[in-house]
Every structure is written in structure tokens, then in C-alpha cells.
């Protein structure tokens, strides 16, 4: 299993950072993709392929450093936008990520992190706190209509 540095974890948590900064419907200056037909959106997202890993390990000490830095640190390095389908929140679409060590590419939609959709700021707060004791970080992703999971074991486990 490949060991990842904390910086590689950032794209997996991008949705967390923005959920903390946004409410259910983002403010007017927040990018939003409004989609009427999900099948058309899948084609528009582009199904770029990546050779980066979908699983690995992150050292608990590295994770804690990321958590200590706070969600704002992610905002400076990544860009996502709320994904709405027929007015309903469906996740955070990756626009730009400078972290090639994780299999997230522009157009991917982060659906949930550790089972949380991160639609509301309170979801971020709860997840951020839960990650301190988490033994894994699981990210559900949609890429061009195909779903897959990213799984990073946190070592050592609690």
C-alpha cells in the first residue's frame, strides 16, 4: 500500500473546506454548476483518466498537522464548485487540484467523505473533529457517471 504525505490528502478533503465556507446554496460569487439532465452532465464532465492511486496510507501525525492548519489551507490550493442537479446539491466538483498523488481530476465530483455529503457547514465541523480519531478516510467520487472510492488508511490506527 502506498504511503501518502499529508499534502496529498488535500484534494480528498477539498469538499470539506468549501462546505465550511458555504451554506446549502453557495453565495452568488461561489461557482455553481446547475445541471438539468444528469446524463448530459456526465458527458460534459469529461471522463479524464488518472494513473494516481485510489488507496494508500497517511501517517496520523501528518493528518493531524493538516487538521491543525484548518480548512482554509485547502482553499488556497484547490478549486471546487457546488454541483447541483435540478436544484439539489449532489457534491463538490473538482475544478483544479495541484495534487497528482491522488486520483482526483478536474470534472470529478466528490459525493461524500467518510459518509458525509458535506452539504452544510456543520457537516464539515463534525467530520473535521471525527478525522482526529478516524482510522480511514473514505471518499466517494463520481467521474463521468462512474462511481469509485478513494480509501486512505490512517496509520497507526487508534
Molecular structure report:
This protein has helices spanning 6-9, 14-21, 38-45, 60-69, 72-75, 121-131, and strands at 3-4, 32-35, 55-59, 79-85, 88-96, 109-113, 136-143, 146-155. It has 158 residues and is α/β, with parallel strands linked by helices. The chain has one domain: Roll (Pdz3 Domain), CATH 2.30.42. It has an eight-stranded mixed β-sheet, sandwiched between helices. Strand 4 (79-85) and strand 5 form a beta hairpin. Helix 2 packs across helix 6 (121-131). The protein is globular, with a radius of gyration of 15 Å.
What is this entry, summarized?
With 158 residues, the chain is of the alpha/beta class.
Features:
alpha/beta; 32% strand; Pdz3 Domain; single chain; 28% helix
Q: Based on DSSP secondary structure assignment, what is the total number of beta strands? A: 8
Instruction: Give the count of structural domains.
Output: 1
Main β-sheet, spatial strand arrangement:
1-3-8-7-6-5-4-2
Provide the residue-averaged pLDDT.
76
Indicate the radius of gyration in whole angstroms: 15 Å
Per CATH, the superfamily is: PDZ domain
What is the level-2 CATH architecture name?
Roll
DSSP strand content: 25-35%
Low-confidence stretches: 4-12, 14-29, 37-47
Give the helix/strand class. Answer: alpha/beta
Percent of residues in helices comes to 25-40%
Cα distance spanning the termini: 19 Å
CATH class category name: Mainly Beta
The ordered H/E elements are EHHEHEHHEEEHEE
Main beta sheet: 8 strands, mixed
Amino acid at each position: 500500500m502506498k504511503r501518502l504525505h499529508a499534502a496529498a490528502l488535500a484534494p480528498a478533503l477539498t469538499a470539506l473546506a468549501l462546505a465550511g465556507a458555504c451554506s446549502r446554496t453557495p453565495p452568488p460569487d461561489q461557482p455553481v454548476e446547475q445541471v438539468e439532465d444528469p446524463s448530459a452532465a456526465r458527458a460534459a464532465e469529461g471522463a479524464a483518466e488518472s494513473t494516481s492511486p485510489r488507496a494508500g496510507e497517511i501517517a496520523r501525525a501528518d493528518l493531524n498537522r493538516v487538521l491543525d492548519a484548518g480548512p482554509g489551507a485547502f482553499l488556497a490550493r484547490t478549486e471546487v464548485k457546488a454541483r447541483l442537479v435540478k436544484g439539489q446539491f449532489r457534491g463538490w466538483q473538482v475544478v483544479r487540484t495541484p495534487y497528482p498523488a491522488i486520483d482526483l481530476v478536474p470534472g470529478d465530483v466528490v459525493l461524500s467523505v467518510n459518509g458525509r455529503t458535506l452539504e452544510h457547514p456543520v457537516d464539515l465541523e463534525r467530520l473535521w473533529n471525527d478525522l482526529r480519531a478516524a482510522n480511514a478516510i473514505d471518499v466517494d467520487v463520481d467521474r463521468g457517471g462512474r462511481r469509485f472510492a478513494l480509501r486512505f488508511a490512517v496509520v497507526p490506527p487508534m
